[in-house]
Design goal:
This protein has 263 residues and is an alpha/beta fold. It folds into two domains: 143 residues, 3-Layer(aba) Sandwich (Rossmann fold), CATH 3.40.50; 105 residues, Rossmann fold (3-Layer(aba) Sandwich), CATH 3.40.50.1860. A six-stranded parallel β-sheet has the order 4-3-1-2-9-10, with helices on both faces. Strands 6-5-7-8 form a four-stranded parallel β-sheet. Strand 7, helix 9 and strand 8 form a beta-alpha-beta unit. Helix 2 crosses helix 3. The radius of gyration is 18 Å and the shape is globular. It starts with 5 loop residues before the first strand and ends in a 5-residue tail after the last strand.
Length: 263
């Protein structure tokens, strides 16, 4: 496959940018398209069929419009629901993201903490992962939508309130030695989470594994220094768009474009 392959990264918000950063660090020469469905954010509050319909419509349209070679669903909530239907509709690879329970369990000596959204905590898929891969280690689960908002705020230049973060993470404090960042937003506030939980807690996420999978599926053996294109789209005007665009430019993107798809 051409080393100028086009990769589409999808999320409900800007959390998937943490996944983009991991893939881009490994494969800077690719053309990246990022779309976030902020008109329906947060996804955890949508019913199953609504979420399925929205993601299919947005992703299939972008794939056709931009001749995409590979899709990454950089959202735990969406991945557990939409992967089968997207793979049935598309002839290109579709990569999803799931909480890194398996590697975390292998690394833990005491217990695993799963920090995720309430929707991911509740989902049967998550409980199956725990049953399959963490039978020997207890898993302390912490569901929070506020942490997602904090990551969105940080990308708009707002400082994280460490006292508030300490309060949110209190249920797993001193109980775990490995914590899974089970939402793609959370690596964006990794430093702050690490500072609260302490250096004795190892933080694990799925970003690097996804980047390796993308490289493998595109059969790219080595990187080139020349960077490809970077475009970002949203389904509604983002809040504090100016502040967000400043951060996006640091990540190599142009300003947010409207995706102009009726849903």
């Amino acid at each position: 496959m051409s080393q100028q392959a086009k990769v589409l990264i999808f999320d409900s918000g800007v959390g998937g940018l943490s996944v983009y950063q991991e893939i881009e660090a490994r494969l800077p020469q690719l053309d990246y398209f990022y779309i976030f469905d902020n008109a329906a954010y947060p996804y955890g509050e949508l019913d199953h069929q609504t979420l399925l319909a929205r993601v299919n419509r947005l992703v299939l349209n972008m794939v056709a419009k931009h001749q995409i070679d590979l899709v990454v669903i950089a959202c735990n909530t969406a991945s557990t629901i939409v992967l089968p239907s997207l793979r049935a509709e598309l002839s290109i690879p579709v990569v999803g993201v799931v909480p890194a329970i398996k590697p975390a369990s292998n690394l833990a000596n005491k217990a695993v903490g799963l920090i995720a959204t309430p929707a991911t905590i509740k989902r049967e898929y998550t409980h199956e992962l725990i049953r399959d891969f963490s039978q020997s280690k207890p898993v302390e689960m912490l569901g929070s939508t506020r942490l997602v908002d904090m990551a969105e705020e940080k990308l708009r230049g707002k400082a994280i309130n460490i006292e508030e973060l300490t309060s949110l993470l209190a249920p797993i404090q001193n109980k775990v030695d490995v914590a899974v960042l089970g939402c793609t937003h959370f690596p964006l506030i990794r430093e702050e989470i690490q500072a609260v939980l302490g250096d004795q807690v190892l933080l694990v996420d799925s970003g690097e594994a996804i980047a390796r999978r993308v490289q493998e599926l595109l059969a790219i053996k080595e990187t080139e220094q020349e960077k490809g294109g970077r475009e970002i789209f949203s389904s509604a005007p983002p809040w504090e768009e100016g502040a967000l665009n400043q951060t996006l430019q640091l990540l190599g993107f142009s300003s947010v474009n409207p995706c102009q798809i009726e849903i």
